[in-house]
Q: What sequence folds into this?
C-alpha cells in the first residue's frame, strides 16, 4: 500500500514574509483594487491573512501522509489535501496581485495544459481541471457545473465518493492513486471512474509555490518605486526652522511617519521633553545642554536617513564606529540609552520602570512604585546629576536619561565611541590615547587600568 508525503518549499513563504516586512511602511499602506472588492481597499490585513494562511497551510501539507487510513470508502484525507492546496494557490495569487506581479506569470500557470492529463474534456486547462476536481470531489459533490469543458453536455456531474486504489484495483489493472466515481446528470449515461494521480496535484501546487520568488521581486520593485518617489521629496534642515529644535522635531516626526513608520515615533516626543523641561536645580543646566547638543548633532544624520530612505552608512546613521552585527542610529542610541553594560546595570529593573512616570501612564500606584525604585538608585544617579527624586515626573525622566548619557561617556560603548570628542557634548574631552583606546576594536587586557577611569572620577566630582 503506497502512501504519499510532501516536501513543499516552505522557505519561499518565509522569504515572502521577510520581504513584506522589509520596508514595511509601503506594505502597510499599499492599496489594491479588484472586481470582488468594489473599489480600492487597504490591502494590509488581507496581505497578513494571506501570509499566515500560506505558511501554515504549506507546513500542514508537509506534515500529512495521504493514503495511510483506507478503512473508509471515502478518501477524506484527499478532500482535505485538495482544499488545502486550493488555499495555498489562492494565497499566492492574491498576494501576487496585491503587489502587482505581472498577470502573465499567473496566466501561464492557469492556462497551462502540461500537468493534468484528463481523460475527460479536451479543452480544459490545468487550472480548470484542478477547479473541477476540487468542486466535484470536495466542495460541491452534488452539483459541479461551472467547468463545462468536462461535463460532455451534461447539466452537472455529482460524486458519491473518491476512493483510494486498493490491491484488487491494482490486480485488475486500474490506473491512478485514487478513483473519483462520477454520476452524470443524464441517467442514460454510465458512471465514470476517473483515475486521479497525487503526483499531478503535487506538481501543479509546486508550480504555484515556485512563483513566490517572482512575487518577492514584484514587491521589492513596488517598494523601490515608492522609495525613489520619497527620495525626490526634499527633507528640510533645522535652519529652515530658524534652529528651533522643538519645531524641527515635530517636522521630523511627521516626515518619519510618512516615510518609515517603524513604530518609533514616540522617540520624537521624548526628545521634545528633553528640550522643554523646566529644571529645578540650575546645576543640571550645563549638563543637560551637552545632552541636548548631542541630540541636535544626531538630527543631521536623521535628516539624511529620511532624505535617502536608508539608515545604512555613517552619513545616514551617524555611527562612525559600529559594533558588529548591531544596526542602529545615533539618534536612536541617544533617545533610548541602554541601561545595561555600565554602572547602572545593577539598577536595570529600577530604571526600566521609569516609563511609569510618563504622561500616558496615569496609574498612581505605578508612579509611586517607580519613585520607590528610583530611591534605591538615587545615590548612583547623583554621581552624574543633581537629583532628589522629588522633581516633577518630566524632570525626573529627563534627569535619569541625562545620567545614563553622562555615564555612557565614561566607558567603552557604542554611544561613547560615536559622540564627537568636543566639549559641546562632554564634560571633558578625551586625550588622544583615551580616544584610541575607546575606538579600538580588540578587547583590552583586564589587568590594564583603563585610561577612562580617570575621566569617570572627574565626572563624578563634577556631577555631585
A:
Amino acid at each position: 500500500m503506497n502512501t504519499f508525503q510532501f516536501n513543499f518549499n516552505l522557505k519561499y513563504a518565509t522569504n515572502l514574509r521577510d520581504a513584506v516586512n522589509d520596508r514595511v511602511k509601503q506594505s502597510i499602506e499599499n492599496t489594491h483594487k479588484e472586481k470582488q472588492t468594489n473599489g480600492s481597499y487597504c490591502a494590509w490585513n488581507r496581505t497578513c491573512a494571506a501570509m499566515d494562511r500560506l505558511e501554515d497551510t504549506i507546513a500542514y501539507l508537509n506534515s500529512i501522509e495521504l493514503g495511510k487510513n483506507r478503512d473508509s470508502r471515502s478518501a477524506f484525507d484527499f478532500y482535505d489535501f485538495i482544499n488545502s492546496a486550493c488555499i495555498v494557490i489562492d494565497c499566492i495569487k492574491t498576494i501576487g496581485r496585491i503587489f502587482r506581479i505581472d498577470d502573465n506569470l499567473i496566466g501561464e500557470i492557469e492556462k497551462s495544459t502540461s500537468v493534468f492529463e484528463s481523460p475527460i474534456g479536451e479543452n480544459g486547462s490545468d487550472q480548470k481541471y484542478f477547479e473541477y476536481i476540487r468542486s466535484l470531489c470536495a466542495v460541491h459533490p452534488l452539483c459541479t457545473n461551472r467547468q463545462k469543458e468536462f461535463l460532455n453536455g451534461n447539466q452537472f456531474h455529482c460524486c458519491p465518493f473518491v476512493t483510494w486504489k486498493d490491491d484488487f484495483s491494482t490486480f485488475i489493472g486500474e490506473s491512478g492513486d485514487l478513483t473519483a466515481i462520477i454520476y452524470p446528470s443524464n441517467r442514460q449515461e454510465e458512471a465514470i471512474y476517473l483515475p486521479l494521480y497525487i503526483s499531478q496535484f503535487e506538481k501543479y501546487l509546486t508550480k504555484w509555490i515556485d512563483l513566490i520568488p517572482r512575487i518577492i521581486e514584484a514587491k521589492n520593485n513596488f517598494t523601490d518605486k515608492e522609495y525613489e518617489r520619497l527620495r525626490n521629496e526634499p527633507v528640510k534642515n533645522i535652519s529652515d526652522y530658524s534652529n528651533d529644535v522643538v519645531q524641527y522635531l515635530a517636522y521630523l516626526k511627521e516626515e518619519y511617519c510618512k516615510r518609515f513608520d517603524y513604530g518609533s515615533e514616540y522617540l520624537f516626543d521624548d526628545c521634545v521633553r528633553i528640550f522643554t523641561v523646566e529644571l529645578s536645580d540650575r546645576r543640571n543646566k550645563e549638563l543637560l545642554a551637552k545632552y541636548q547638543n548631542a541630540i541636535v548633532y544626531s538630527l543631521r544624520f536623521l535628516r539624511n536617513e529620511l532624505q535617502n530612505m536608508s539608515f545604512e552608512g555613517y552619513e545616514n546613521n551617524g555611527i562612525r564606529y559600529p559594533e558588529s552585527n548591531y544596526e542602529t542610529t545615533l539618534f536612536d542610541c541617544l533617545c533610548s540609552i541602554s541601561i545595561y553594560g555600565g554602572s547602572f546595570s545593577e539598577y536595570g529593573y529600577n530604571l526600566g520602570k521609569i516609563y511609569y512616570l510618563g504622561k500616558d501612564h496615569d496609574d498612581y500606584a505605578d508612579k509611586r512604585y517607580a519613585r520607590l525604585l528610583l530611591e534605591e538608585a538615587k545615590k548612583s544617579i547623583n554621581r552624574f546629576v543633581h537629583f532628589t527624586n522629588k522633581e516633577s515626573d518630566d524632570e525626573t525622566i529627563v534627569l535619569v536619561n541625562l545620567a545614563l548619557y553622562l555615564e555612557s561617556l565614561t566607558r567603552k560603548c557604542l554611544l561613547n565611541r560615536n559622540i564627537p570628542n568636543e566639549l559641546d557634548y562632554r564634560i571633558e574631552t578625551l586625550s588622544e590615547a583615551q580616544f584610541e583606546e575607546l575606538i579600538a576594536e580588540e578587547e583590552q587586557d583586564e589587568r590594564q587600568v583603563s585610561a577612562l577611569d580617570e575621566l569617570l572620577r572627574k565626572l563624578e566630582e563634577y556631577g555631585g
Remarks:
- The CA atoms of residues 341 and 413 lie 8 Å apart.
- The beta strands are 31-34, 39-42, 157-158, 162-164, 178-184, 192-196.
